[in-house]
Amino acid sequence: MKDNIIAGLDIGSTSIRLVAGQKKVNESGEQLQILGAVTVPAEGINRGVVNSIEDATSAISACLEKAERLIGVPITNVWVGINGPNLKCEKSQGVVAVGRSDNEITEDDVNRAVEAAQALSVPPNYEILHVIPVRFAVDNQADIKDPIGMTGVRLEVETLIIQGLSSQIKNLTKAIYRTSLEIEDLVLSPLAAAEVVIGSKQKELGAALINIGSSTTSLAVFEEGELLHAAVIPIGSEHITADVAIGLRCPINLAERIKLEYGSARSDKFTKKDEVDVSDLAKEENISEDSIVISKKYVAEIIEARVEEIFEKIDNELKKIDRSGMLPAGVFLIGAGAKLNDLVEVAKNKLRLPACLGTNQNVPLALDKVSDVNYLTALGLVAWGNQLTKRKKNSRISWPSGGAAGKGLEQVKDWFKSLIP
Question: Which residues, 6 or more positions from 351, have their beta carbon under 8 angstroms from its beta carbon?
Protein backbone atom coordinates (compact mmCIF):
# COMPACT_ATOMS: atom_id res chain seq x y z
CA MET A 1 0.00 0.00 0.00
CA LYS A 2 2.78 2.41 1.00
CA ASP A 3 4.61 1.89 -2.30
CA ASN A 4 1.53 2.75 -4.36
CA ILE A 5 0.99 6.17 -2.76
CA ILE A 6 1.60 9.14 -5.07
CA ALA A 7 1.50 12.56 -3.36
CA GLY A 8 1.51 16.01 -4.95
CA LEU A 9 2.72 18.97 -2.87
CA ASP A 10 1.71 22.44 -4.09
CA ILE A 11 3.57 25.11 -2.13
CA GLY A 12 1.87 28.47 -2.62
CA SER A 13 2.39 31.88 -1.02
CA THR A 14 -0.76 31.68 1.15
CA SER A 15 -1.51 27.94 1.33
CA ILE A 16 0.30 24.62 1.13
CA ARG A 17 -1.83 21.87 -0.37
CA LEU A 18 -1.21 18.15 -0.54
CA VAL A 19 -3.23 15.62 -2.55
CA ALA A 20 -2.55 11.89 -2.10
CA GLY A 21 -3.51 9.22 -4.61
CA GLN A 22 -3.04 5.49 -4.91
CA LYS A 23 -2.64 3.12 -7.85
CA LYS A 24 -5.36 0.46 -7.75
CA VAL A 25 -5.50 -2.54 -10.08
CA ASN A 26 -9.00 -3.57 -11.16
CA GLU A 27 -10.63 -5.33 -14.16
CA SER A 28 -10.07 -2.36 -16.46
CA GLY A 29 -6.35 -2.21 -15.57
CA GLU A 30 -4.42 0.14 -13.32
CA GLN A 31 -6.35 3.17 -12.11
CA LEU A 32 -5.49 6.19 -10.01
CA GLN A 33 -7.67 6.67 -6.95
CA ILE A 34 -7.53 9.91 -4.97
CA LEU A 35 -7.44 9.23 -1.22
CA GLY A 36 -7.56 12.72 0.25
CA ALA A 37 -6.59 16.39 0.05
CA VAL A 38 -5.50 18.80 2.78
CA THR A 39 -4.53 22.45 2.99
CA VAL A 40 -2.70 24.48 5.65
CA PRO A 41 -1.74 28.20 5.74
CA ALA A 42 1.71 28.80 4.26
CA GLU A 43 4.48 30.40 6.25
CA GLY A 44 7.98 31.44 5.25
CA ILE A 45 7.03 31.64 1.55
CA ASN A 46 6.57 34.77 -0.52
CA ARG A 47 5.75 34.80 -4.26
CA GLY A 48 6.50 31.09 -4.48
CA VAL A 49 10.00 31.66 -3.05
CA VAL A 50 11.14 30.44 0.39
CA ASN A 51 12.18 33.38 2.58
CA SER A 52 12.42 31.47 5.89
CA ILE A 53 13.43 27.80 5.80
CA GLU A 54 12.43 27.30 9.45
CA ASP A 55 8.85 28.56 8.93
CA ALA A 56 8.44 26.79 5.59
CA THR A 57 9.58 23.47 7.11
CA SER A 58 7.09 23.69 9.99
CA ALA A 59 4.23 24.58 7.58
CA ILE A 60 5.10 21.63 5.28
CA SER A 61 5.35 19.33 8.36
CA ALA A 62 1.88 20.45 9.52
CA CYS A 63 0.47 19.72 6.06
CA LEU A 64 2.12 16.29 5.99
CA GLU A 65 0.83 15.36 9.47
CA LYS A 66 -2.71 16.43 8.53
CA ALA A 67 -2.56 14.34 5.32
CA GLU A 68 -1.21 11.25 7.08
CA ARG A 69 -3.94 11.47 9.74
CA LEU A 70 -6.55 11.74 6.98
CA ILE A 71 -5.43 8.80 4.83
CA GLY A 72 -3.96 6.67 7.63
CA VAL A 73 -0.77 5.80 5.73
CA PRO A 74 2.69 7.41 6.01
CA ILE A 75 3.73 9.55 3.02
CA THR A 76 7.42 9.23 2.18
CA ASN A 77 7.75 10.63 -1.35
CA VAL A 78 6.23 13.71 -2.99
CA TRP A 79 6.10 15.38 -6.40
CA VAL A 80 6.64 19.09 -5.78
CA GLY A 81 5.30 21.99 -7.82
CA ILE A 82 7.71 24.88 -8.37
CA ASN A 83 6.62 28.36 -9.28
CA GLY A 84 8.30 31.74 -9.16
CA PRO A 85 8.89 34.86 -11.24
CA ASN A 86 12.53 33.84 -11.83
CA LEU A 87 11.74 30.86 -14.07
CA LYS A 88 13.07 31.11 -17.63
CA CYS A 89 11.91 29.30 -20.73
CA GLU A 90 14.15 28.88 -23.82
CA LYS A 91 14.20 26.84 -27.00
CA SER A 92 17.24 24.76 -27.84
CA GLN A 93 18.15 22.36 -30.65
CA GLY A 94 20.29 19.25 -30.67
CA VAL A 95 21.63 17.43 -33.74
CA VAL A 96 23.30 14.00 -33.82
CA ALA A 97 24.33 11.47 -36.46
CA VAL A 98 22.40 8.19 -36.29
CA GLY A 99 24.63 5.55 -34.72
CA ARG A 100 23.60 2.26 -36.33
CA SER A 101 25.05 1.07 -39.64
CA ASP A 102 21.57 0.30 -41.05
CA ASN A 103 20.55 3.92 -40.14
CA GLU A 104 17.67 2.84 -37.90
CA ILE A 105 17.04 5.36 -35.10
CA THR A 106 17.25 3.88 -31.61
CA GLU A 107 16.41 5.06 -28.12
CA ASP A 108 20.10 5.82 -27.63
CA ASP A 109 20.10 8.25 -30.58
CA VAL A 110 17.09 10.09 -29.15
CA ASN A 111 18.73 10.38 -25.72
CA ARG A 112 21.97 11.69 -27.31
CA ALA A 113 20.01 14.30 -29.31
CA VAL A 114 18.17 15.48 -26.17
CA GLU A 115 21.51 15.66 -24.31
CA ALA A 116 23.03 17.67 -27.16
CA ALA A 117 20.12 20.15 -26.85
CA GLN A 118 21.01 20.70 -23.19
CA ALA A 119 24.44 22.06 -24.12
CA LEU A 120 23.27 25.67 -24.05
CA SER A 121 24.85 28.36 -21.90
CA VAL A 122 22.90 28.40 -18.64
CA PRO A 123 23.58 31.49 -16.47
CA PRO A 124 25.82 30.57 -13.49
CA ASN A 125 23.07 31.02 -10.89
CA TYR A 126 20.46 28.99 -12.83
CA GLU A 127 19.93 25.26 -13.33
CA ILE A 128 17.82 23.22 -15.75
CA LEU A 129 14.46 22.04 -14.40
CA HIS A 130 12.82 20.48 -17.45
CA VAL A 131 14.01 19.46 -20.90
CA ILE A 132 10.88 18.92 -22.95
CA PRO A 133 11.32 17.49 -26.48
CA VAL A 134 8.82 19.36 -28.66
CA ARG A 135 9.47 17.85 -32.07
CA PHE A 136 12.03 15.81 -33.98
CA ALA A 137 13.30 15.97 -37.54
CA VAL A 138 14.87 13.05 -39.41
CA ASP A 139 17.00 14.21 -42.38
CA ASN A 140 14.62 16.70 -44.05
CA GLN A 141 11.36 15.35 -42.63
CA ALA A 142 10.20 17.67 -39.84
CA ASP A 143 7.44 17.51 -37.18
CA ILE A 144 8.02 13.92 -36.09
CA LYS A 145 6.60 12.95 -32.68
CA ASP A 146 8.49 9.68 -32.01
CA PRO A 147 11.42 8.92 -34.34
CA ILE A 148 12.36 5.52 -32.83
CA GLY A 149 12.39 2.82 -35.52
CA MET A 150 12.56 5.32 -38.41
CA THR A 151 15.47 5.35 -40.85
CA GLY A 152 17.73 8.34 -41.42
CA VAL A 153 21.25 9.71 -41.20
CA ARG A 154 20.73 12.85 -39.13
CA LEU A 155 18.43 13.26 -36.13
CA GLU A 156 17.45 16.71 -34.92
CA VAL A 157 15.40 17.60 -31.83
CA GLU A 158 13.82 20.87 -30.80
CA THR A 159 13.43 21.14 -27.02
CA LEU A 160 11.98 23.60 -24.59
CA ILE A 161 14.33 24.13 -21.65
CA ILE A 162 12.90 25.50 -18.41
CA GLN A 163 15.47 26.90 -15.98
CA GLY A 164 15.06 27.84 -12.33
CA LEU A 165 17.13 29.96 -9.99
CA SER A 166 19.54 27.59 -8.18
CA SER A 167 19.23 29.29 -4.78
CA GLN A 168 15.41 29.17 -4.99
CA ILE A 169 15.47 25.44 -5.86
CA LYS A 170 17.98 24.61 -3.11
CA ASN A 171 16.04 26.52 -0.42
CA LEU A 172 12.78 24.84 -1.40
CA THR A 173 14.31 21.34 -1.47
CA LYS A 174 16.11 21.96 1.83
CA ALA A 175 12.83 22.95 3.54
CA ILE A 176 11.18 19.75 2.23
CA TYR A 177 14.10 17.41 3.11
CA ARG A 178 14.01 18.71 6.68
CA THR A 179 10.56 17.12 7.06
CA SER A 180 12.23 13.78 6.07
CA LEU A 181 10.22 13.62 2.83
CA GLU A 182 11.93 12.39 -0.34
CA ILE A 183 11.39 14.47 -3.48
CA GLU A 184 10.49 12.47 -6.60
CA ASP A 185 10.97 15.54 -8.80
CA LEU A 186 10.28 19.25 -9.10
CA VAL A 187 7.63 20.05 -11.71
CA LEU A 188 6.65 23.44 -13.10
CA SER A 189 3.25 24.09 -11.46
CA PRO A 190 1.17 25.13 -14.53
CA LEU A 191 2.63 22.19 -16.47
CA ALA A 192 1.41 19.76 -13.79
CA ALA A 193 -2.03 21.40 -13.46
CA ALA A 194 -2.52 21.11 -17.24
CA GLU A 195 -2.30 17.29 -16.86
CA VAL A 196 -5.77 17.26 -15.31
CA VAL A 197 -7.35 20.45 -16.70
CA ILE A 198 -6.61 20.31 -20.44
CA GLY A 199 -7.59 17.29 -22.55
CA SER A 200 -5.26 15.85 -25.20
CA LYS A 201 -7.50 17.08 -28.08
CA GLN A 202 -7.37 20.65 -26.69
CA LYS A 203 -3.58 20.43 -26.30
CA GLU A 204 -3.36 19.41 -29.97
CA LEU A 205 -5.47 22.38 -31.16
CA GLY A 206 -3.75 24.97 -28.97
CA ALA A 207 -4.71 25.91 -25.41
CA ALA A 208 -3.34 27.83 -22.44
CA LEU A 209 -3.61 27.30 -18.70
CA ILE A 210 -3.61 30.42 -16.51
CA ASN A 211 -3.15 29.88 -12.77
CA ILE A 212 -4.02 33.06 -10.85
CA GLY A 213 -2.46 32.52 -7.43
CA SER A 214 -2.28 34.90 -4.51
CA SER A 215 0.96 36.63 -5.51
CA THR A 216 1.88 35.20 -8.93
CA THR A 217 0.06 34.29 -12.13
CA SER A 218 1.56 31.43 -14.10
CA LEU A 219 0.95 30.47 -17.71
CA ALA A 220 1.54 27.33 -19.79
CA VAL A 221 0.75 27.31 -23.52
CA PHE A 222 0.27 24.06 -25.46
CA GLU A 223 0.06 23.29 -29.17
CA GLU A 224 0.26 20.02 -31.12
CA GLY A 225 0.18 18.17 -27.80
CA GLU A 226 3.40 19.73 -26.48
CA LEU A 227 4.32 22.64 -24.23
CA LEU A 228 5.05 25.69 -26.34
CA HIS A 229 5.79 28.33 -23.71
CA ALA A 230 5.68 28.88 -19.94
CA ALA A 231 5.94 32.05 -17.87
CA VAL A 232 5.30 33.38 -14.36
CA ILE A 233 4.03 36.95 -13.86
CA PRO A 234 4.62 38.51 -10.39
CA ILE A 235 1.03 39.77 -9.94
CA GLY A 236 -1.78 37.82 -8.29
CA SER A 237 -5.10 38.10 -6.48
CA GLU A 238 -3.48 39.61 -3.34
CA HIS A 239 -2.60 42.68 -5.42
CA ILE A 240 -6.30 43.09 -6.29
CA THR A 241 -7.20 42.89 -2.58
CA ALA A 242 -4.50 45.45 -1.73
CA ASP A 243 -5.89 47.82 -4.39
CA VAL A 244 -9.40 47.48 -2.91
CA ALA A 245 -8.06 48.12 0.63
CA ILE A 246 -6.29 51.30 -0.54
CA GLY A 247 -9.27 52.46 -2.63
CA LEU A 248 -11.80 51.97 0.17
CA ARG A 249 -9.34 52.84 2.98
CA CYS A 250 -10.38 49.71 4.86
CA PRO A 251 -8.45 46.85 6.55
CA ILE A 252 -7.09 44.13 4.25
CA ASN A 253 -9.28 41.31 5.67
CA LEU A 254 -12.43 43.35 5.04
CA ALA A 255 -11.20 44.24 1.52
CA GLU A 256 -10.83 40.49 0.76
CA ARG A 257 -14.43 39.80 1.88
CA ILE A 258 -15.79 42.76 -0.15
CA LYS A 259 -13.83 41.62 -3.21
CA LEU A 260 -15.24 38.07 -3.07
CA GLU A 261 -18.83 38.90 -2.09
CA TYR A 262 -19.55 42.17 -3.92
CA GLY A 263 -16.61 42.62 -6.29
CA SER A 264 -16.69 42.13 -10.04
CA ALA A 265 -14.11 42.37 -12.81
CA ARG A 266 -16.58 44.35 -14.97
CA SER A 267 -17.53 47.88 -13.93
CA ASP A 268 -20.00 48.37 -16.82
CA LYS A 269 -22.48 46.06 -15.03
CA PHE A 270 -23.18 48.67 -12.35
CA THR A 271 -24.38 52.26 -12.19
CA LYS A 272 -23.36 54.87 -9.65
CA LYS A 273 -26.59 54.17 -7.75
CA ASP A 274 -25.55 50.55 -6.97
CA GLU A 275 -24.50 50.80 -3.36
CA VAL A 276 -24.23 48.22 -0.61
CA ASP A 277 -23.90 48.43 3.17
CA VAL A 278 -20.99 46.25 4.33
CA SER A 279 -21.26 46.98 8.07
CA ASP A 280 -22.31 43.32 8.70
CA LEU A 281 -19.07 42.11 7.09
CA ALA A 282 -17.12 44.66 9.13
CA LYS A 283 -18.69 43.30 12.35
CA GLU A 284 -17.75 39.74 11.37
CA GLU A 285 -14.16 40.93 10.89
CA ASN A 286 -14.29 42.74 14.30
CA ILE A 287 -14.15 46.22 12.79
CA SER A 288 -16.27 48.61 14.84
CA GLU A 289 -17.73 51.19 12.49
CA ASP A 290 -21.37 52.18 12.51
CA SER A 291 -22.17 52.13 8.83
CA ILE A 292 -20.00 51.48 5.81
CA VAL A 293 -21.68 52.03 2.45
CA ILE A 294 -19.65 51.34 -0.68
CA SER A 295 -20.29 51.87 -4.38
CA LYS A 296 -20.24 48.57 -6.27
CA LYS A 297 -19.20 50.41 -9.43
CA TYR A 298 -16.18 51.99 -7.69
CA VAL A 299 -15.03 48.60 -6.31
CA ALA A 300 -15.49 47.00 -9.74
CA GLU A 301 -13.43 49.77 -11.38
CA ILE A 302 -10.54 49.11 -8.95
CA ILE A 303 -10.68 45.34 -9.58
CA GLU A 304 -11.11 45.73 -13.35
CA ALA A 305 -7.96 47.86 -13.69
CA ARG A 306 -5.75 45.24 -12.01
CA VAL A 307 -7.39 42.25 -13.77
CA GLU A 308 -6.88 43.94 -17.15
CA GLU A 309 -3.22 44.50 -16.27
CA ILE A 310 -2.80 40.75 -15.53
CA PHE A 311 -4.39 39.76 -18.85
CA GLU A 312 -2.35 42.36 -20.77
CA LYS A 313 0.84 40.81 -19.40
CA ILE A 314 -0.40 37.34 -20.38
CA ASP A 315 -1.21 38.63 -23.87
CA ASN A 316 2.35 40.02 -24.11
CA GLU A 317 3.66 36.51 -23.33
CA LEU A 318 1.43 35.10 -26.09
CA LYS A 319 2.74 37.78 -28.50
CA LYS A 320 6.31 36.55 -27.84
CA ILE A 321 5.38 33.20 -29.40
CA ASP A 322 2.98 34.65 -32.06
CA ARG A 323 -0.10 33.07 -30.48
CA SER A 324 -1.96 36.21 -29.34
CA GLY A 325 -5.65 35.54 -30.10
CA MET A 326 -4.69 32.31 -31.90
CA LEU A 327 -5.37 29.39 -29.54
CA PRO A 328 -8.55 27.65 -30.80
CA ALA A 329 -9.15 25.61 -27.60
CA GLY A 330 -8.91 28.81 -25.54
CA VAL A 331 -7.70 29.48 -22.00
CA PHE A 332 -8.47 27.63 -18.77
CA LEU A 333 -8.42 29.68 -15.56
CA ILE A 334 -7.52 28.07 -12.23
CA GLY A 335 -6.21 29.17 -8.83
CA ALA A 336 -7.72 31.15 -5.96
CA GLY A 337 -7.98 34.33 -8.07
CA ALA A 338 -10.10 32.57 -10.71
CA LYS A 339 -13.14 32.66 -8.42
CA LEU A 340 -13.58 36.40 -8.92
CA ASN A 341 -16.97 37.36 -10.45
CA ASP A 342 -16.97 38.04 -14.24
CA LEU A 343 -13.27 37.19 -14.57
CA VAL A 344 -13.98 34.80 -17.46
CA GLU A 345 -15.76 37.58 -19.41
CA VAL A 346 -12.77 39.92 -19.03
CA ALA A 347 -10.41 37.12 -20.11
CA LYS A 348 -12.45 36.55 -23.28
CA ASN A 349 -12.40 40.27 -24.15
CA LYS A 350 -8.77 41.04 -23.33
CA LEU A 351 -7.22 37.87 -24.79
CA ARG A 352 -9.69 37.56 -27.70
CA LEU A 353 -9.96 33.83 -27.01
CA PRO A 354 -12.51 31.35 -25.64
CA ALA A 355 -12.15 31.20 -21.84
CA CYS A 356 -13.58 29.09 -19.03
CA LEU A 357 -12.87 28.05 -15.46
CA GLY A 358 -10.62 25.00 -15.38
CA THR A 359 -12.07 21.74 -14.05
CA ASN A 360 -10.63 18.29 -13.57
CA GLN A 361 -11.17 16.35 -16.80
CA ASN A 362 -8.73 13.47 -16.61
CA VAL A 363 -8.78 11.89 -13.11
CA PRO A 364 -11.85 10.05 -11.74
CA LEU A 365 -12.73 11.54 -8.33
CA ALA A 366 -14.85 10.41 -5.42
CA LEU A 367 -14.07 13.59 -3.45
CA ASP A 368 -15.78 16.80 -4.60
CA LYS A 369 -13.35 18.91 -2.58
CA VAL A 370 -10.45 18.00 -4.90
CA SER A 371 -12.30 19.38 -7.95
CA ASP A 372 -11.98 22.90 -6.50
CA VAL A 373 -9.81 25.26 -8.62
CA ASN A 374 -7.42 25.63 -5.66
CA TYR A 375 -6.53 21.93 -5.61
CA LEU A 376 -6.00 21.41 -9.35
CA THR A 377 -2.21 22.00 -9.22
CA ALA A 378 -1.69 19.42 -6.43
CA LEU A 379 -4.02 16.99 -8.24
CA GLY A 380 -2.05 17.60 -11.45
CA LEU A 381 1.18 16.71 -9.64
CA VAL A 382 -0.35 13.36 -8.61
CA ALA A 383 -1.46 12.73 -12.21
CA TRP A 384 2.02 13.76 -13.47
CA GLY A 385 3.69 11.34 -11.04
CA ASN A 386 1.31 8.57 -12.08
CA GLN A 387 2.00 9.17 -15.80
CA LEU A 388 5.75 9.21 -15.27
CA THR A 389 5.88 6.00 -13.24
CA LYS A 390 3.72 4.32 -15.91
CA ARG A 391 5.94 5.66 -18.67
CA LYS A 392 9.10 4.43 -16.96
CA LYS A 393 7.63 0.91 -16.89
CA ASN A 394 6.39 0.85 -20.49
CA SER A 395 8.38 3.41 -22.42
CA ARG A 396 11.20 2.75 -24.78
CA ILE A 397 12.36 6.33 -24.39
CA SER A 398 14.12 6.78 -21.07
CA TRP A 399 13.58 10.54 -20.69
CA PRO A 400 10.35 11.68 -19.09
CA SER A 401 8.81 14.94 -20.34
CA GLY A 402 10.77 16.79 -17.71
CA GLY A 403 12.79 15.88 -14.69
CA ALA A 404 16.24 17.19 -15.49
CA ALA A 405 16.22 18.54 -11.96
CA GLY A 406 17.07 15.04 -10.73
CA LYS A 407 20.86 15.47 -10.74
CA GLY A 408 20.67 18.78 -8.90
CA LEU A 409 18.32 17.24 -6.34
CA GLU A 410 20.71 14.34 -5.70
CA GLN A 411 23.54 16.81 -4.99
CA VAL A 412 21.36 18.81 -2.57
CA LYS A 413 20.21 15.58 -0.91
CA ASP A 414 23.78 14.29 -0.39
CA TRP A 415 24.91 17.68 0.87
CA PHE A 416 21.95 17.97 3.22
CA LYS A 417 22.40 14.44 4.59
CA SER A 418 26.03 15.27 5.35
CA LEU A 419 24.82 18.11 7.63
CA ILE A 420 22.51 15.90 9.71
CA PRO A 421 24.48 14.54 12.68
Answer: 311, 314, 315, 318, 324, 325, 331
